[in-house]
Design brief:
Order of helices and strands: EHEEHEHEHEEHHEH
Number of strands: 8
Structural class: alpha/beta
Helix content: 25-40%
Largest sheet: 8 strands, mixed
Radius of gyration: 15 Å
Oligomer: single chain
Shape: globular
Strand content: 15-25%
């Protein structure tokens, strides 16, 4: 695992959904114009006490998670397999809060990847763990227009939305500012295992 910022087109071959990262995850908490393609929508499979998530986190994430736990009350762990981001940051934050409220744990599958908004959903877990070889990618957010994290004043209320969310999830404020500086919106920075622990992304 490397901890360098990669341009999206350099790693598109092994992260086929990564193009959505430009507008997702660490993006202003408003709905995006980007819609997931039919074959990129979030899929959820349940096996035992674990629910495995793959695909783009959409506008209906909270409903999907609610349906999941209602239909599978035995589920205790949300396993993120391949999650390249989200198209609705507000829904992603609400989804993370729901996971926390339900007392569920989150885990990133070994050799899987979680990027941008996927990282925010991961933070919802009461207990959080990351499998060996998993990729955890962050970058500065953009809303897909001319509004980016970089061209907003540091006192802009949008920043406070993110900072408060991370604090609520148990991650330090500095993780937000680190993400903004780690890579621009069209690139992804993969955290090292040391950084994952330093930013308190994992609890075990």
């Amino acid at each position: 695992m490397t901890n360098k910022a990669f341009p999206i087109n350099r790693i598109a071959s092994w992260l086929p959904l990564l193009a959505v990262v430009i507008l997702v995850g660490c993006a202003a908490p408003v709905e995006k114009r980007l819609e997931p393609q039919a074959d990129n929508i979030l899929s959820i499979e349940v096996e035992g006490n674990s629910a495995y998530l793959s695909g783009v986190l959409g506008h209906d994430l909270v409903q999907q998670l609610s349906d999941l736990v209602r239909e599978n009350p035995n589920v205790t762990d949300i396993v993120l397999v391949d999650v390249p981001g989200s198209v609705d940051q507000q829904a992603t934050m609400q989804g993370a809060r729901l996971i926390r409220h339900l007392g569920l744990n989150t885990h990133i599958a070994s050799t899987g990847y979680v990027l941008s908004g996927g990282v925010d959903l991961f933070l919802g877990g009461v207990e959080r763990s990351i499998g060996a070889g998993a990729g955890v990618g962050v970058h500065a957010w953009s809303d897909g227009t001319n509004v980016t994290a970089k061209n907003l004043n540091v006192t802009d209320p949008v920043h406070a939305v993110y900072v408060n969310f991370y604090l609520e999830m148990g991650a330090p404020e500095r993780f937000y500012w680190f993400s903004l500086n780690a890579a621009p919106a069209d690139r992804v920075y993969f955290l090292s295992p040391e950084e994952e622990y330093d930013f308190q992304l994992v609890t075990e």
